[in-house]
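A reminder from the course coordinator: this example appears on the midterm review sheet, so study it carefully.

Given structure:
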């Protein structure tokens, strides 16, 4: 039997993703640096952030090495982010050396023929902003964010091929202000709503600023479109909980893009200036599915195959998300994050190929998917989990900072080179002589 071929469109973009705080190192003006210090005052068993980020992968200084490795595996587009706190270490102070360094980093990608998909905000805030309410204080944050975006667009915009306004506008509100698993570790529906609305406004204002300066540049958002299921399939509470969560953390953002209004529970249908139509492409960050037990999320249940993050192995969820988002917000899609925390490279390869098969299936259904960016180029600081989770195609020895391409990275290089892959033929039952 011939192996099944998974060939991708000739112009399909293959890439990798990362974020400034997780790889650069020594972002001491960031809120996370302060949270990490605060957590160290707690007994080890009660620390909500496993360890400080510190020097991370020292990517700030080793970006040439990292991008040379990206080139060697054929990466066509890379998704770095800019650390707001590096550009504005104080509210009114621009660090021009940091801007110049980011320019050098983006030029290092361009010199290697790697397109730049630049994300302007990936979870972290400057400490001066976080200490004044951060994402729950839109009145303070939005003008400051506009000034930051204008500075970045002015100094780096000519080097950017694709823009991402923010990473996962729904995750900080959910994880930091409802689920209390990320700093500031709150559980407040009001703060959830405030933070979510701030992110929606950050997105729409960044979109406008970029389009004013670079009208033809594609501007998107990297959205963690949660695949959610009721824990007990026919339980009315679980089904209601799933539907409410799905509405609030998935649908409302895109309905806002479609009609300019923010519906309950994020608003009362009022218009948000600049939101309607403020999206050229959708970045989808997909990892897994999860359950709702009433109003409470459940990461997995006994018997589920899970990754080292405890996330359920569920590739078909990506297919379902692609279909749903293409109906909800008919625009080109780029998978802006997909990857697995594992030290088992055969599991990494299986995860990669199984999710690419779902993308291939969605493409065959006519869904406009322009590219795939694997999370992540290198192992990096996995937020509250510290360095214990390894998502990289390139391994990092944190003692020496030595980089080493993993087997999964070699496999990804082959897939990029072949613009697809073939399903290994099952072993013949009767071995041919
Ligand atoms: C996220 C972030 C990344 C994570 C990655 C693995 O989705 O949380 O975008 O910063 O590191 O998703 O968890």
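Designed residues:
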């Amino acid at each position: 039997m011939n192996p099944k071929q998974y060939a991708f469109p000739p112009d399909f973009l293959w890439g990798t993703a990362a974020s400034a705080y997780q790889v650069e190192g020594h972002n001491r003006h960031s809120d996370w640096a302060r949270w990490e210090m605060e957590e160290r005052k707690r007994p080890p068993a009660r620390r909500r952030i496993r360890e400080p980020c510190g020097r991370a992968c020292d990517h700030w200084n080793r970006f040439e090495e990292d991008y040379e490795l990206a080139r060697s595996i054929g990466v066509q587009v890379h998704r770095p982010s800019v650390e707001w706190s590096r550009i504005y270490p104080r509210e009114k102070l621009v660090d021009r050396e940091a801007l110049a360094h980011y320019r050098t980093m983006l030029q290092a990608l361009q010199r290697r023929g790697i397109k730049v998909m630049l994300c302007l905000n990936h979870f972290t805030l400057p400490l001066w902003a976080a200490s004044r309410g951060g994402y729950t204080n839109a009145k303070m944050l939005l003008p400051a964010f506009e000034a930051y975006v204008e500075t970045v667009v002015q100094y780096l915009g000519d080097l950017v091929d694709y823009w991402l306004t923010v990473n996962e506008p729904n995750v900080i509100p959910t994880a930091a202000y409802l689920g209390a698993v990320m700093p500031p570790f709150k559980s407040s529906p009001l703060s959830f709503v405030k933070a979510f609305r701030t992110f929606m406004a950050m997105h729409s204002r960044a979109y406008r600023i970029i389009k004013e300066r670079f009208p033809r540049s594609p501007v998107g958002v990297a959205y963690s479109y949660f695949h959610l299921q009721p824990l007990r399939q026919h339980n009315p509470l679980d089904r209601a909980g799933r539907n409410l969560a799905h509405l609030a953390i998935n649908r409302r953002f895109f309905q806002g893009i479609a009609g300019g209004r923010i519906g309950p529970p994020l608003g009362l249908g009022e218009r948000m200036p600049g939101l309607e139509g403020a999206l050229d492409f959708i970045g989808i960050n997909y990892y897994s599915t999860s359950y709702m037990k009433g109003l409470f999320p459940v990461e997995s249940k006994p018997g589920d195959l899970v990754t080292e993050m405890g996330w359920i192995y569920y590739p078909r969820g990506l297919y379902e998300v692609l279909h749903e988002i293409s109906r909800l917000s008919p625009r080109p899609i780029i998978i802006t994050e997909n990857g697995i925390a594992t030290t088992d490279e055969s599991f990494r390869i299986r995860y990669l190929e199984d999710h690419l098969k779902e993308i291939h299936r969605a493409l065959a259904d006519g869904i406009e998917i322009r590219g795939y960016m694997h999370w992540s180029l290198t192992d990096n600081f996995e937020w509250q989990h510290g360095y214990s989770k390894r998502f990289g195609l390139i391994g990092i020895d944190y003692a020496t900072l030595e980089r080493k391409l993993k087997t999964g990275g070699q496999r990804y290089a082959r897939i990029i080179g072949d613009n697809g892959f073939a399903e290994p033929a099952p072993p013949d039952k009767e071995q041919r002589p």
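The first helix runs from residue 20 to 23. The pocket of D-gluconic acid is lined by residues 19, 22, 167-168, 171, 224, 285, 337, 375, 382, 391 (CB under 6 Å).
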